[in-house]
Design a protein that fits this description.
Layout lengths: L2 H4 L11 E3 L8 E4 L5 E3 L6 E2 L13 H12 L4 H25 L8 E5 L7 H7 L6 E6 L2 H7 L6 E5 L13 E7 L5 H7 E12 L5 H7 L8 H9 L4 E14 L1 H9 L9 H9 L5 E13 L6
Parallel strand pairs: 4-7, 5-6, 5-8, 6-7, 8-9
Antiparallel strand pairs: 1-2, 2-3, 9-11, 10-11
Helix pairs in contact: 2-9, 3-4
């Protein structure tokens, strides 16, 4: 795992910084500064920093991850990735002058934390879009199946197995940007790991997201009050800094419709046989709306 990634990680048990252990039998071992806890990198390239009381009941299964990779590889959500990369480039460039004047770069260079980042699909284009071109990235997710892919998503990224609802195994003020795409978020923890002047970009589905499928297939719909609930959860910790909407149409054949259902939360609540029967009654291909909102929040530099 890259040194730039390791230096931002923290032991989930004692909170101390992690470092590579040259005395370990394998090259892929991390140990806390006090030497009390060690963590071996999995053969697939990710490291598990889970605590014993982690809650992984809703972590993506192997089937969900395979469906997500198939759907994303087909390019159906490429406009979302492009819009997020553009927003990240603006956030990174817009804060750079302030960080230089105030010395807010701290002891760390630029790093992007993709919280609940799955396979790293969104992190990779963000890293390529940032102004410096040398930022590292961390994909943090509760699914080992997703992280096996995330470990290979980008040459400057590392993958960490952890529970987003607990204290994140990331050092204080060590990342400049947090991504959160259709994933759980803990405002207090996000603020802790962001350095002053850093940004959070949250992608949430709009009311019209997959609207043509929700009723026909009995999927979970989007709460109309989601923007209000998002603001209520985050504004005690971070300052709102604007947002944008992205909406586009997708032509999905029946296979793509099945994968988009199987990769999301509706996968936990639909019977596969019944789902295929309902899909068979749709046009092939069917035109489906993708509608998301990208909101930006900042940790203000004055908060010290």
């Amino acid at each position: 795992m890259l040194p730039d990634v390791v230096e931002r990680l923290a032991c989930p048990h004692c909170g101390e910084a992690l470092r590579g252990d040259p005395a370990a039998a394998g090259a892929g071992t991390l140990r806390c500064a006090g030497g009390r806890h060690s963590f071996d990198l999995a053969r697939q390239g990710y490291v598990s920093l889970l605590r014993g009381d982690a809650r992984l009941g809703t972590a993506d299964t192997a089937e969900m991850v395979a469906a997500r990779e198939e759907f994303q590889a087909a390019g159906h959500y490429a406009p979302i990735a492009e819009a997020l990369a553009g927003a990240a480039a603006l956030a990174g460039g817009g804060d750079r002058g302030e960080r230089g004047e105030r010395g807010d770069r701290s002891d760390f260079g630029d790093c992007v934390l993709d919280l609940g980042g799955g396979t790293g699909y969104y992190l990779a284009p963000v890293l390529d879009a940032l102004p410096d071109g040398d930022a590292c990235g961390i994909v943090l997710d509760a699914s080992k199946y997703a992280l096996r892919r995330a470990a290979k998503a980008h040459p400057r990224a590392g993958a960490v197995l952890a529970d987003a609802w607990q204290r994140l195994p990331v050092r204080d003020a060590s990342v400049s940007l947090v991504l959160n795409v259709f994933a759980p978020r803990n405002g207090a923890e996000i603020r802790r790991v962001l350095r002053p002047g850093g940004s959070l970009l949250v992608v949430t589905p709009g009311p019209g997201h997959l609207a043509e499928l929700v009723g026909e297939l009995g999927l979970i719909g989007v709460d109309d009050r989601k923007p209000e609930r998002l603001a209520a959860a985050l504004t005690p910790h971070l300052a709102p800094a604007g947002g944008q909407e992205a909406e586009f149409r997708m032509a999905l054949d029946h296979r793509a419709v099945e994968t988009v259902v199987r990769m999301g939360p509706s996968a936990w609540h639909t019977d596969p046989g019944e789902l295929r029967q309902r899909i068979a009654g749709l046009d092939d291909p069917v035109t489906v709306t993708a509608s998301v909102r990208i909101d930006r929040f900042r940790r203000l530099s004055a908060e010290r």
